[in-house]
Amino acid sequence: MALHIALDAMGGDRGPEELVSGAVMAAREYDLELSLIGDQGQLGAILARLDKPSTRIHLVHASQVVGMDESPFDAIRRKKDSSIMKAFALHKEGKVDAVVSAGNSGATLAAAIKLLGRLEHVSRPGIAGIFPTLKGPVVMMDVGANVDCRSLHLFQFGVMAAAFSQVLFGLDRPRVGLLSIGEEGGKGNVLVKKSHELFQQSSLNYIGNVEGRDTFQGDVDVMVCDGFVGNVCLKLSEGLAEAVMGMLGEEIAKSFKAKLGYLLARDAFVSFKKRVDYAEYGGAPLLGIRGNAIICHGRSSAVAIKNAIRVASEMVRNKVNDRIVELLSLHQPLVQEDDTLMAKATVSEVIP
Amino acid sequence: MALHIALDAMGGDRGPEELVSGAVMAAREYDLELSLIGDQGQLGAILARLDKPSTRIHLVHASQVVGMDESPFDAIRRKKDSSIMKAFALHKEGKVDAVVSAGNSGATLAAAIKLLGRLEHVSRPGIAGIFPTLKGPVVMMDVGANVDCRSLHLFQFGVMAAAFSQVLFGLDRPRVGLLSIGEEGGKGNVLVKKSHELFQQSSLNYIGNVEGRDTFQGDVDVMVCDGFVGNVCLKLSEGLAEAVMGMLGEEIAKSFKAKLGYLLARDAFVSFKKRVDYAEYGGAPLLGIRGNAIICHGRSSAVAIKNAIRVASEMVRNKVNDRIVELLSLHQPLVQEDDTLMAKATVSEVIP
User: Matching NCBIfam families, A to Z (chains A, B) (predicted)?
Assistant: First the structure.
């Protein structure tokens, strides 16, 4: 039987049309059933306008929408019939195999954890960001779900992202690095130093501390950090890439010769943009939950949505959660032995 | 009398020749006395080779060099006659007004704090990174001196960087933002939330939380973060800018037409590179010490060194430290009232 993916068709900054278009593309390209969750009238009208809508696309009505700026916790408490909540409710009931959402990411996270719960052994589910690099993709975890973490959490992020990388990218022994401010193990803040000790004792292919400049070189497959640092990195990268292209554009616009040159080199710019486009993986998988979910960028294009649907189906088909639980179980003795992992006072111990 | 700047002429990845060239350029362009600290024979030979060495350049012998990868604390304990230690010793004795170093940055920091001490009211000196943006420069503090911080420290980084921004860039009320993962004050980790409350009560032109994507837009003059986050951002930015140019270069190299286009647009690329070049400010000022110091990138070019010497002299001439102490004094009541600032247990309070 074909896998069945639910799409929160109301979220995102570009409106439902873009999301529905992505779903239609996915239905044509992949062997999948799709449920679009949202206002049935609105979504039906969009589907009718699109050329040859697939018979494998189903509409599921949800009367409410969570705004992009709404408080996640208020939203999941008060809007029980929102498209996000409905999508995860369907997942919980086993009617769909995964959820894709470009809506309020905090609410998506909260709804997933509330309705699906955590996988065995998982202390904190987290969001895995996938970055393009000069070589292959690098998975950075956590990129925003957990802003205050302990070493146990960072360690588990590394294990979960490694499992994801194995299953999705076919890497046997993904190289796991700990994001820090120097390559030596002694460098970093208290959290990183404690996490480093834990990774060193693990059976992961741990390559030690890595620095921000290594992120885009492609010499590491999994980068571990807390959700505050990861989210700052994610947004800084977006901002810098935009600023670089903006400044370059301004300089090119200053002379006719340069503009002509740009036109000639245009194909190279287009391939470059495609290469660094986050849309290739569509979004960031939420790992550690009893289910499968992809959190997409609010500005996701139809292509990004299509790709997120593909990645979600690959996560289900390749049983990424089984691999996560297996790899976490393997490391349970290590985690249980170390009582200090959950001990109170981390920062306060070292700051005079 | 002309100001007198000491240059650690042995540090950096490019060797003394590059550093000495920068000093010679500075001596020609600015009304300054310069002391080059390091191996007298080696530096003398380099100076002799350079065209028309200035009579305002003095050599001060130091028999030791701190390696780029040496442990800072070991280095300042064991290598009392290193070029870094000697430079700060001269500063302490009042023989020079500022120190510029492209050597081991940890050792530079440690030597500065050990020999010069902290300014009045300063809890933790920090490093202020200066980033180019689409508009003016943005000062980010701390970019690496303090990896584990409390809200008091972040608050003081904001005050010190604002004082620097006022004095160096002539901004009357620099806009101060707190680097976080959402623009609302309620977003961020425990440290950021506590710091936000403090900034809100201050007389600074505090614009609230800012995100990584705002860094390069130029809509904020001072960005506050702890030294771990700041250092990760610094290195990520470097890495991303290199990767972007690398990937773009690879795409351009693929076709003759694109290569031709690049040649035509070459001037635009050159102006762009100049615009984003960290060399414009030469390095990162160390703020909060009883003295003036600029920590330069290990890979600094002669131009970067020349510019760092200029910025160091401007810091002295414009009395940035007086402004720092004045602005900190103004906020002392705020800091003293709040007993929780230095209280133990921050992370542990909220993580179950």
Answer: plsX
